Fold Aspartyl/glutamyl-tRNA(Asn/Gln) amidotransferase subunit B.
Amino acid sequence: MSKYEAVIGLEVHVELKTKTKLFCGCSTEFGKEPNSQVCPVCLGLPGSTGVLNKKVVELATKAGLALNCEIGTYTWFDRKNYYYPDLPKGYQISQVFRPIAYNGYLDIDVNGQTKRIRITRAHIEEDPGKLAHSGGSITNSLASFVDYNRSGMPLIEIVSEPEIRSGEEAKAYLEKLKAILEYTGVSDVKMEQGSLRCDANVSVRPVGSTTLGTKTEIKNMNSFRAVQRAIEYEVERQIAVLEYGDKVVQETRGWDENRGITVSMRNKENPDYRCFMDHELTPIELTREWIEEVRATIPELPDSRRKRLIEEYGLPAYDAGIITSSLALAEFFDATLQKFPDAKTISNWMMSELLRLLNAGNMELHQAKVTPDGLASLLNLIKKGTISNKIGKEVFEIMFKEGKDPEQIVKEKGLSQISDAGQLSQVIAEVIANNPKSVADFKSGKEQAIGFLVGQVMKATKGQANPGVVNKMLREELTK
């Protein structure tokens, strides 16, 4: 690998968050019966002509501005001609020659270093239909079925410059891009539903060379981790091909998640799409005033929010980065902070407990039953000494699964912290009597012995004793 450099460019297709399709009134709702959300326009029937959805132009402009792009004031649609079963017209409506947004950039952080990845263009296009294969993938299927519900859905395709140098950088780019699009409300960016899809163009070249190598295009990656793994594998594969003395073939390759390899799908040598302007569709003319009106609707973006959490609330950069990585987490944090004004404590609980449970259950935040108000109430109970931190974690798990109020859980399960000296004195006396060696160690100056004794009291009270009170009472007894 030290002899070679990876050159990676990403093409990201983002489904825009509209109620109707790009050129017709068909619903964009996900998961409906196949071919139930179609009409002559999105089926490409002869003689049908669509009307442009204005909301698509607004969202595309908003996305371009959020990605630091220039916005074209005069653009149009083109026909990109190719044949595939999911493309009923035999061509795709896109913006080949005059994209709505161009010359943008996105900054990523990898291993403590900030790197700027330039964005070549972001253009509007229609989605084709969707193939459902009889087997696990197109490479091992005997038949494929076509669902045209997705045909005509509005997309923006965001194309990066080939400035990404590793799978790790690609993953960081996609995570940042997803967050920006989510914050702006441009898309729901759900990879599992296909509203965010990524193709990677990968090549390698000798270190120091400025000539691009032969690239392959990788498809069928359904997670950011899959994108990273696919790129890492493909880079190693291409290096092995070159080291063996062969040439890399320009082709489309699919990612096989189960085997962890890319597999050849079809040759892609110099494709000719015969693109030309679609004269049946009216060009788009935007005024500078309208563009600025759209800019004014862009909310606080991840980088600005991260900076605010660091500067206003003193959060470490790592904490702020995790919290602002998704809009849902950032809003959960802000809502909790309204009821419990201790940013670092909230951050600690979100990163250690909330994210742990979400990851363990492979869940999104909206699927958890815990609320910001619930977490704030729990942290107030711990702060008042009603329950210990350890008991708090047990209560939080119940809140996460059942959505119950923490005070109700504590009451029902009898989890209140024991701070009464009268209740603790007998337990402390028994622990001192049963652990003479630790008592002797403490009296001889071994400070750590007190920790063991406190632990024994906590064990005897099933974690309900107030550790601060226990520590104080033990010291008083042992220094008499």
Notes: The mean pLDDT is 92. Residues 55 and 276 are 25 Å apart (CA to CA). Residues 302-413 form one domain.
